[in-house]
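<given_protein>
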Amino acid sequence: MHWIIHGHFYQPPRENPWSGRIPRQPSAAPFHDWNERIHRECYRANAHSRILDARGRIESIVNNYEEIHFDFGPTLLRWIAREDPELHARILDADAASVLARGGHGNAIAQAYNHMILPLATDRDRRTQILWGLRDFAHRFGRRSESVWLPETACDEATLRLLVELEVRYVILAPAQAKRVRPLAGGAWTDVSGERIDSSRAYRATVRDRDGTERGGITVFFYDGPLSAGISFGHFLRSAPALADRLAARGTGDADLVQVATDGEVYGHHEPFGDMCLAYLTRREAPRRGVRVTNYGEHLDHHPPHDEVELDFGPHGAGSSWSCAHGIERWRSDCGCRTGGRSDWNQRWRGPLREALDALRDRLAGIYEEAAGALLRDPWHARDEAIDLLLDPAGRDRFLDRHARRPLDEAERAAVLDLLDSQHHAMLMFTSCAWFFADLAGLEVQQNLAYAARAIEVVQAYGGERIEREFVDRLA
């Protein structure tokens, strides 16, 4: 029997786009801000989790990242590296240890860069988001990621096609995103909609071009829905033995794999001391029951797919996700899915916010393409590689020399950096959290609008003098 426990660790980028620092957030009191609070309750706690003996004394300290499969948001890891280098090192060391312990397969996987809902992105933004996530991962972990966590598991045909193009080995989706299955050898399809997919095995999804031509395939894992929901919302983390019983009960019969996926923040932040339950589960309960805790890469080596799956991409094929019953409407309409707020509130503001930012994105793209195109051989390829400017600021001159059409003077070099900065913020302004919650005035919406304001400010010197007024009028 094998268990895979996936933690999706993520916070939206919270830095002030002018200062690069996170302002005080009173709602996170007694901590300075939400990153600091969740860092203390969850991220650091999981790197130094405690197993206690029968008398309540510390028996051992466990780095949970050595045990579970996980992804970290690149913008969050950037913050951790700056604020707690020791924790950053513990996360990287845990992945390195898992590579040695699990047949060359690390526990960590990449995440699309700033948690943009990819089915709602342009083809260009979708590509940059995934390339930046993969590049950030390789820079930190020293290896190529086998998978990419899709924000909110939001997926459509175009997203899957890009993953295949970039040779991503597998992807993790929600059980509701499966429509029907059949043997790889062919035969009749079996309807598995309504979360009836067997999550104890891997599947192969065929990917096609827009004209229907088969493009290739990718392995898909579907996490166990009821177990994952119980961990997230049903307080399953209050007893490691009881959780182990539940996991074991799901693995009866021919099932060789039990897999769960949740927000990583449940292990200590949403569920206090959940990190300690996780440590005891993996280090005590699993060995006691003869269970091997593994990761997807190692499991896939020994259990390749034998079945094909057709995915459900939501209404009209626009996309599906793990946190919206209406596909991806949560991030563009008043679909009814929300978190927090009063019962008499609505989210009709989501549509105008999305439309205004879409229009701004297109205006910013036009300005960037024209102004940067005069200086760079391929401005969009340069943007795809501009993550290197964040990861290695000292390599700025090498980056500019590599992409410039001709030798650039200092003013032109500064202009290129300005324009790339505007595109960085143009992506940050689509971070998914702005649409997730109930309140238009929440921190997350304010943060995205701050990124929009910064992008607007930067391009005003390059032909964007009227862009702010246009944006404000659309928001109105």
User: Anything to note?
Assistant: Residues 69 and 295 are 6 Å apart (CA to CA). The chain is about 45% helix and 15% strand.
